[in-house]
Amino acid sequence: MSVSSVPLPPVAAPDPAKSASETAVGCLLVAGSAIAWSTGGALTRFLDTTDNWTVVFWRSVFAGLFLLCFMLVRDGPRGTLRLFRSMGLAGVGVGICFAIASSCFIVALSYTTVANVLLLQAAVPLLAALISWVLFRERVSLATWGAIAVVIAGVAIMVSNSLDGAVSPIGDLLALLIAISFASATVITRRKAHLRMTPAVFLGVVMAACAASMMSGSFSASARDFGFLFALGAVNLGLGLALFVSGARLIPSALAALIGTLEPVLGPVWVWLLHNEVPTQRTIIGGGIILCALLFHLGWEYRRQRAASTRKPVV
């Protein structure tokens, strides 16, 4: 799956004392994560195996091994253990959301285009705002409400492809489930700002691997497929997350999210160039509407964060 929408805890507003070089490094790391995440669809299309659960299993195994090694190198054995102990139920909840999204991503690609899956995931930040309002009555600005309305219109246009048989409705429904799962995880991390995402995502891939092991008819794959499965797990999932968590702490959260929109843009480009998979006209129109709404919202949020960080206290 593309984990382009992997939710992460909010990061601090920009610190004026930070150097320009540190900010540049943060931007490059987050851009690298978006590029890594954008390869998920193209890599999946290279696979010969037709058993989706075999793909989910091995992808999750390779991702889990990468993330575990990343935590051990970054935090040490004791630090890694502390991360898992401090997750609590919130971390388990995020892990469940990620396991659902990770599994559905592979299955969805069997029924619909990469563009449909990735562009629907671009709506995650606004879906999260909607869920927060419904469940917790969190204040939603007028600008965000407008963006949510536009996103709903874009989603409706994209999903209408399934009504005339252009793509399977199963694929679009799974893509929506992925977006809702990521949005739910985003809501959890916003309310539990101390939660570290890496151990929660590790737990999610372990859950996905366990579920896939019970669903898969066989764990066998060709040597060629194992190479792509390793890339799907270690590079697309693991490296993408490692780059994001390393870079997002150096730049404002809105800027990190803004750079992250590279993923739903690049993902369909890779499958077009490598596999000649061309999105339908409605996918392009609906996806374009979603991206424009998201860019408007993130740009507005970034300006708001910058204004808040530069506002001097009254003495």
From TrEMBL:
A single cellular component GO annotation: membrane
A Pfam family annotated for this UniProt entry: EamA
Classification via InterPro entries: EamA_dom, EmrE-like
Keywords, alphabetical: Membrane, Transmembrane, Transmembrane helix
TM region positions: 56-74, 86-111, 117-135, 142-160, 166-188, 200-220, 226-246, 253-272, 284-302
Organism: Phyllobacterium myrsinacearum
EamA domain mapped to chain residues: 26-159, 170-296
Protein name per Swiss-Prot or TrEMBL: EamA family transporter
